[in-house]
Specification:
- With about 70 residues, the protein is an alpha+beta fold.
- It has a domain at about 10-35.
- It contains two helices and two strands.
- The chain has helices spanning about 25-50, 60-65, and strands spanning about 10-15, 20-25.
- Strands 1-2 form a two-stranded antiparallel ribbon.
- The two termini are about 45 Å apart.
């Protein structure tokens, strides 16, 4: 997992000697993309929990999921 302090970006310098941090190691890029996906998943889960209107206990869900013929 990438932490912000672990990034080591390289800079591109333009004609006016302005640095632009755009180049990072490929592994760092992949790790950042994975982190972004994890954060998006966590955000989606939180949103679903906040918008949910009905819950069933896990054991009841599992029992039904494992054997759909059981109706309670």
């Amino acid at each position: 997992m990438v932490k912000v302090g672990q990034l080591s970006p390289r800079f591109i310098v333009d004609e006016e000697s302005q640095k632009t941090p755009v180049v990072i190691d490929l592994n760092e890029y992949k790790n950042l993309m994975e982190l972004i996906e994890d954060l998006e998943d966590a955000n989606d889960l939180l949103k679903a929990e906040l918008e949910a209107t009905d819950f069933i206990p896990y054991e009841e869900f599992r029992k039904h999921w494992m054997n759909p013929q059981i109706i309670e």
